[in-house]
Amino acid sequence: MTPSRTPLSRRQLLGFGLGTAAAGLLAGCAVPGSTNVNRAALIPAASGGETVQLTYWAWLKDLQKVCDVWNAKNPRIQVTANWIPGGTAGGYQKMYSALAAGGGPDIGQVEFRQVPEFMLANGLVDLARYGAKDVASRYDEAAWSQVEFNDGVFGIPQDTGPMAFYHQPAVLDAAGGEPPTTWDEWRTLSEKVRSTGKRNYLEVFPVADASPFTAYAQQAGARWFRVDGDEWVIDMTDEKTMMVAEFFDQAIDDDLVDTSAGAYTPGWYAAAASGRIGAVTSASWGDALIESVQGAKGKWRVSPMQTWGEGFGSSQIGGSTAAVLANAEHPAEALEFLVWMTTSREGIDAMIKYCGIGWSPATDYIGEQRQQPSAFFGGQSYNEDVFAPAAQEQNTDWSWSPLTQSALNSLQNQFRRKVTGRLTLPDAVELAQREVVQAFRDKGLSVRAAS
Residue 58 forms beta bridges with which residues? Predict the structure, then answer.
């Protein structure tokens, strides 16, 4: 299912009236320059005898080893990786500060959901001007849809997070259940698992992390952010989202999910190791985290994500781009390196081996390591059998906004009240939408709520 997608121009992102000073405030720093780099003349590729030096800021481990693979065969373009903290842990502020000072790296790791904010700050090079559209067919449609805005391309997909249902067969067998194919079946299975012991749950529902809920709504077909004419339309209370909110609100009321901790927290690991947590609906990168569960080798399997009966076959959590930042002196060469890193067999294998990236966004290669059966997951070839199809079953109509983190924070703050103040999840979503609309207005953006 691939609905039409209305791309957003930077002018629309700005709300047709937000000046560059206000855009800088939105990004948390001054705009890198008074002139939009994407309106300036193209920067020509370096001449034949010149060696180009590129810098790449990211929080990926051992990224330099990937660069070294490239550097050994490409003396004309040399890439140096510098580690920075994760984006919201200080990495983004470091990038914004460098951009505002007229510097910064050539390439920066920018999560998909942060791309619109960087665009508002004039922080990214439009790579379409350097031929990026010529390689669009090499990437999964859903991944590419998150970097293409109007006629521009503002990053190269680096990794994604299609979702599946990780589970312990022994826990499901003890409850007399099987991996669910729908969310209704998931509820029935949750009831069965709860009946096996007062501390036993199928899954957790983290009230302090809105990312899973967002992914579930996205899978159902929700579209929270869009542009209509000269204003942003916020639609977090649409029918699909409220259906998901009501579903999990009832699951919490019926004590079918553990709300005490999120997945991959210390409490979750202890419960998973003892069989008190039987499953987790999570992204492709969750496999490495599950492998950290004590004594879990051979005890977990992976099945396709359960569906809502409509909408999409899977969803996504996480994922990043490798974006060329505004002060880059060699955008053409940066694009050449990034396409190699994210679509060539050599580049993808190196990114998996050294950096442990999430799902490769390339259409035709998932990585040699991921083509092999997994000893940990009982010999299952789950990457080919589950995640490769899941990457093609995404909501390509979904767009993030320039205030994505604000929206997630509002949801999380209100969701906590489900546990502490008995607020319903549908009411929490409505309150969060009001806060998000106000946040847009506070930033000078033209906005209205759809409902």
Answer: 83
Specify whether 322 is located in the same domain as 307.
no
Structural domain for 284, as ranges: 163-315+398-449
* Interatomic CA distance for residues 133 and 153, integer angstroms: 7
What are the pLDDT digits (tens) for 409-422? 999 999 999 999 88
Q: Indicate the residue type of 65.
A: K
> Could you count the other beta carbons within 10 Å of the beta carbon of residue 296?
16
In the numeric block, the tokens 């709520």 are attached to: 449
For residue range 194-251, list pLDDT tens digits in order. 999 999 999 999 999 999 999 999 999 999 999 888 899 999 999 999 999 999 999 9
Q: For the chain, what is the largest distance between any 2 Cα atoms, rounded to a whole number of angstroms?
A: 72
162 within 8 A of 154, measured Cβ to Cβ: no
| Residue at 388 is within a domain | no
CATH of the domain at 35: 3.40.190.10
Bridge partner list, 182: 307
Instruction: Quickly tell me which residue has 């859903």 as its tokens.
Output: 142
Would residue 383 count as lying in a domain? no
**Number of domains within the chain:** 2
